[in-house]
Amino acid sequence: MPIEINGHTYYRTKEVCRKTGISRATLLRWLKEGILEEPYRDRRGWRLFTLNDLDIIRAEITRIRVERVPARAR
Which of 40, 43, 48, 61 is the most exposed place for a label (fewest CB within 10 A)? Predict the structure, then answer.
C-alpha cells in the first residue's frame, strides 16, 4: 500500500515489484548495476519509490537491448 509523506506518494519495494511485475532480485540488481537510480529512503532505511520511478522501471522492462553476437567460426 502506498504511503503519504508531506503530501507525496511513495511505494515500498514490495509494492513496486507487484505493480511492475518484476522480482525483488531483479529490482535490486538493476539498482546495484546503476540501471536505476537509488530511490529515497525512510528513517529505517527502507527504499521509497515515486510514481516517476515506477514509470522508469516500466520503461526499462520494455526496453530492448541489442547485443552483437560474433559469428561462429566454421
Answer: 43
CATH node for 3-62 = 1.10.1660.10
State whether residue 47 is helix, strand or coil: strand
Three cell numbers written together for 11: 511505494
Q: Global pTM?
A: 0.80
Q: Give residue 74's pLDDT.
A: 54
Cell 527502507, residue?
46
**Cα torsion at 19, 21, 24, 26 (round to 10°)?**
-130
> Domain limits of the chain?
3-62
